[in-house]
Amino acid sequence: MNGPACRRLTSALASHCRGYIGRRSNYSLSRWRNVTSLASIANASAAGPRRQQVRGKKTKTSMRLEDLPQGPIKMDTPLPPEPEPDEGPAYPTVVLQARRNMQRFENCVLLTRVGGFYELYFEQAEEYGPLLNLKVAHKKTNAGPVPMAGFPFFQLDRFLKTLVMDLNSYVAIAEEFPNDPGDKVKSNGLMHDRRVTRVITPGTLIDENFIDPYANNYVMAIHVNHHNQETDSSTSDGLSDINSSSNADAGYLAEPQPGATPIGLAWIDVSTGQFYTQSTTVTSLGSILSRVGPREIVVDEVLESQRDHRVFSVLAEDKHLITFAPHSEHLPLPEWSPMLESEIPAQTAQSFTSDEVHAGSLLLQYVKDRLQGLSIKLQPPLRYENMSVMSIDKSTMRSLEIKQTIRDGTFKGSLLHAIRRTVTKGGARLLNAWLSAPSTSLETITSRQDLVEHFAQHPDLRDEIVLLLRRSHDSQRLVQKFALGRGDPDDLIALANTIRATQDIVSLLEASTPTEQKRPAAPSQDTHPPSQTEPTQSSGKSCFAPLLSRIKLADPGNLATRIKNSIDEEGLVQQHQNEDSEASHLMTLASDVVASEGTQGDDAASSSALVPLPKAAAAKRKRQAPASLRDYYYNAAVAANTSNDDGAAFVMRPEASPGLRALHAELAALVREKHVLAEDLRRRTGAASLTLRWTPNLGHVCHVKGAKDLRRIADAEAAAKSKAKSKAETEDEAAGNGDGEGIGLGAVVSSSRSTRAYQAPAWAALGRRLHQTRWEVGVEEQRLFADLRALVVANLVKLRRNAGVLDELDVTASFARLADENGWTRPVLRDTHAASTTAAAASPAGAGSDGDSDATATATAAAATATDTIDNNGNNDNNTTAIPNTATTTITTAQHLVLGGRHPTVELGLRERGRTFTQNDCQLSGTASAATSATGRLWLITGPNMAGKSTYLRQNAVILILAQAGCPVPASYAELSVADAVFSRVGSADDLSADRSTFMVEMLETAAILRAATPRSFVIMDEVGRGTTPEDGAAVAFAALHHLVTVNRCRALFATHFHGLADMVTDRGLHVSQGGAVEMYCTDVEEDEAGGFVYVHKLRKGVNRQSHALKVARLANLPEAAITVAKEVLEKLERDRHEDQTQNQGQGQVQGQETSLHDDTHTKRQSASAG
Q1: DSSP result, 840-855
Q2: pTM
Q3: Which is nearest to 175 in space by CA: 110, 96, 99?
Q4: Strand partners of residue 748
Q5: N or C: which end of the chain has fewer CB within 10 A?
Q6: What is the rounded distance in angstroms from the CA atom of residue 519 to the CA atom of residue 101?
Q7: CA-to-CA distance for 425 and 125, rounded, in angstroms?
Q8: Considering the chain, what is the average pLDDT of its residues?
């Protein structure tokens, strides 16, 4: 009586008897409202006037369990039968299947495979047909016309690209599956069932032809702990009005703020298996999204009703695609293992935060649901916090144009476009990752630089490596296709070729001579002593040793050998030719159907949606085309079975297995027997046109064409009958033998004016054996192919690691080629953070100031020598010998020394127009203490418009990013300290949709920099404060400069048109001549007597108080009348300012005289009183 069944029965009885025995209601509020409403109506009808209802006293009733009735519950009246589900109108079975799938995947565009087409139905056909440029027809059914549209199956990728990439739609693909005999009866004889095999979204692409091969395709999940949202919102109410408005939703403030919501992130590239997680806050989400660039954002559907959450404000800035997915079940870390290629290390598993685990759980469930049961093997997740990389926020990524231009958002013109020389798709994706998140590990950077330098010093080796890399394929995505169970024989061949190329690359690297190489010196050798040119740190062998140790080729080599021995590449080529021929025939049919059934306008519209026909297919169109799809498939089946059996396209070699070898031998014997049978029948009938065929309707028949052959068969039949009659005992026995039995032919099963088909018992028996053998060959090939797939999955980890090594070789070889083409140099990088930490541990605070001064003086002297050489030789002199590493080994302070620096993208654009780029130097001391060197830690840059101030700022930030990515830099020499972050406040833009003016956006970006920059950061700021009045703007600009110098103490370049900032710097004692950290540089304009001018882009010390705005206005072709008025206003303002200065000086002199007279009078009075 205490079992679960008895307890459920007791509960049911108590509820049925309305015995509210200590019951705790689980009913919804609406049900209780209904009960209260009924009670009030009853009371109102009995008592007359309405009165206030009072809840009655609670009562408690108890009963013994033995008093409850036992046995099954007896119902007085039977329960009404459950209503059958409404199937809707009586549509045909195919349409009904599509309707059910549309209801199941209601947020997706359903593409249903019907024969050789994918079709859309109902409202989706009407909505998406015009968008896809497809004709919308109406299928006649008993339930009325059904809108439908379709396209040939081989154009699936083309229309998927439009739906998924252009329209951001989710597409469900319903494929055909053969029905069992029992299912055929249930479906009224339908041959196929149609089930959704995959849901394609922008973030879950695998191997589609339209996926970007040069960039990762990430889908990201964001987990927000909604249980703590009330606490966060109540805390954030105490912020200022600006932070509580929509302007705070962008999350620009990087330092922890009250109410900053912690979130967990997880992102996956389904096409490569890469998996990352990160724990962050909403304030940093925008920068992370800019760096990762996800194609789709997945959020728990619980947040769908909370659209005012700060997360959605950040996502709305760049219009990210948001998907709300159910998170019904939380998957802890141990349950991720079936979806990973290997276990998560225990030490790594302990470092994951709860938010990261929830985000990963949501993302894995979403990806698994989209793939509809496909097996998945991802790489173990990596925590972004454990990766030592530079921080580049969203505004910096945009203003420096790292991955796309600011103006039109295109790839051409970006930094990535300017430096990309990779030859593999995986290498291009790795370069994208390195440039978006440069390393802060000096060991990692140095190892990349060593590879680049070795390739630069050995161009022949580099060229051979590049040739081998061109032979390889995108093995990262190839391997992932097999992990998802999707690879085909072409992918196996590509994978085998990649493994072979990897073996050749390893042999080439191992055979490279491990001789010590010297750093290449510039042409002018007299600048530095020869002893400063020393060997590099590592030889060729040790340079490649870390990479070679990661490559495993034993098992992958065996896999490649087996693939080559198993797959018949010639048969594969023939199979592709057959598929192309089938596609062209089907294209012809589709065009003919449109031409015959549609109007002229429909024909033009639909034909524009079809791929143009090849010349051969266009010529064949003149012939008779099949009238319908059924005729097309009928003819295709006939052609497939009447083709030359000796030329049948098989994918696997006969030597792939003993069983396949035996089957091919049996098939060859049957084919020979078929030829013998055909020759025998031709001899016996005298019909030279006799062929052995198979058709879907008639089966195995003998086909004869031509009147002459038909007469010969008739004569042969007559002769055979007469011979048979003479030998037969009765006439009935002779008649019962059938037509043509004596010549091997049976009854006529089909005939026309010039053709006739006969039954042939011998051919029917032989044909069945041929079909059976071909089927067994196909089964054996499928088994062998499954074995090869399993071998690829078994070598998954090794193949992915090998692919990663090839990608690194590709990127570093491309860096070497880039340096050779453009004259770029290897920068010297120093980890000042580690050095300062060591110094702090070795000596008390303040004890190391003298050493820092000596080190800075050493660096300054070396830089001064190099700078003098460049200045004496001119702006475009690249003949300065690189300063060796050993010359400044005592430097421990962060610095930024660039000699002859250039901007890579601007220089490329000028070179295309036949112009040269003016080089500029930059030397920031970077000392975080009060005592600074003469070079300054912050440069205040003034100068005319269009004189290159913004370009100079950006080129120094770009040089630092390239250096920490391991790339050579566009400079004659560079010595840089590793930066933890690069910040940029350049350019102007508003955000009207978020209610932000241009000045507000500028202030938000400035605030983010001032709050987040550290002494290891590098900051560039341009035109801070220009969006408001000159007085307010100058005040804000100087406040930002003062904060960078005194609080952040970071390396910074600060460009402005507020020339008064130079005076403020001097008044505050911030100039280097006063012991401060600010130095002043400027650009200029040279004018001639005729009024012409030229910009001087070379920086010099000093302040330029002329912006020359009218010169830029004239260059922009401003109307001359407007320029004349501007000159008049400018001259008047200059006169007024001059008069004000003169008046102020006069008042100052008068006040000074009055003060002197007052002092004299006061002195005389004191003297008189004293006397």
Answers
A1: HHHS-TTTTHHHHHHH
A2: 0.77
A3: 110
A4: 758
A5: C
A6: 66
A7: 37
A8: 76
With b meaning 16 or more CB within 10 Å and e meaning fewer, what string describes 552-591?
eeeebeebbebbbebbbeebbebbeeeeebbbbbbbbbbb
Backbone angles phi, psi at 1093, to 5 degrees: -150, 160
- Distance, in Å, from the CA atom of 388 to the CA atom of 384, rounded to the nearest integer, reads 8
Q: Residue 1128 has which token pair?
A: 């008049």
- Cβ(215)–Cβ(429) under 8 Å? yes
Place of tokens 């005939």: 751
Closest listed residue to residue 1056, CA positions, set 1027, 1021, 1007: 1021
**Burial of 196 per CB tally in 10 Å (0-12, 13-18, 19+):** middle
CB distance 976 to 962 below 8 Å? no
> 787-809 b/e with 16+ CB inside 10 Å = b?
ebbebbbebbebbbebbbbbbbb
829 phi, psi to nearest 5 deg:
-115, 145
SS (H, E, C) 788-803: HHHHHHHCHHHHHHHH
| Stated length of the chain | 1171
Exposed/middle/buried for residue 402 (C-beta within 10 Å: 0-12, 13-18, 19+): buried
- Strand duo 755-759 + 391-392: pairing: unpaired
One-letter amino acid for residue 902 of the chain: R
Residues 1146-1153: what's their mean pLDDT?
A: 57
Q: What is the dihedral of CA 602, 604, 609, 612, to 10 degrees?
A: 140
Q: Is 289 helix (H, G, I), strand (E, B) or coil?
A: helix
Q: Give the rounded distance of the alpha carbon of 844 from its chain centre.
A: 49
Highest mean pLDDT: which range of 153-157, 491-495, 532-536: 491-495
The larger pLDDT score, comparing residue 1107 to residue 290, is at: 290
